[in-house]
C-alpha cells in the first residue's frame, strides 16, 4: 500500500488524517473523503 497525500494536513480546516491508523477507522476515512471532495474538482474535456 502507498498512501500518498501532498499538503493535506497543512490546511487549518483539514481533518487529522492519522495515516498510520486510517484503515481501521471508517469514520475517519469518511471525514477525509468528504473534506477532499469539497476541495477537488475534475473536468473531462473529452466528454461529448
Automatic annotation (TrEMBL):
Please report the name of this protein according to its UniProt entry.
4085_t:CDS:1
Taxonomic source organism: Racocetra fulgida
Amino acid at each position: 500500500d502507498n498512501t500518498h497525500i501532498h499538503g493535506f494536513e497543512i490546511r487549518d480546516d483539514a481533518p487529522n488524517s492519522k495515516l498510520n491508523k486510517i484503515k481501521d477507522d471508517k469514520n475517519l476515512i469518511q471525514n477525509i473523503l468528504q473534506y477532499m471532495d469539497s476541495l477537488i474538482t475534475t473536468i473531462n474535456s473529452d466528454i461529448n
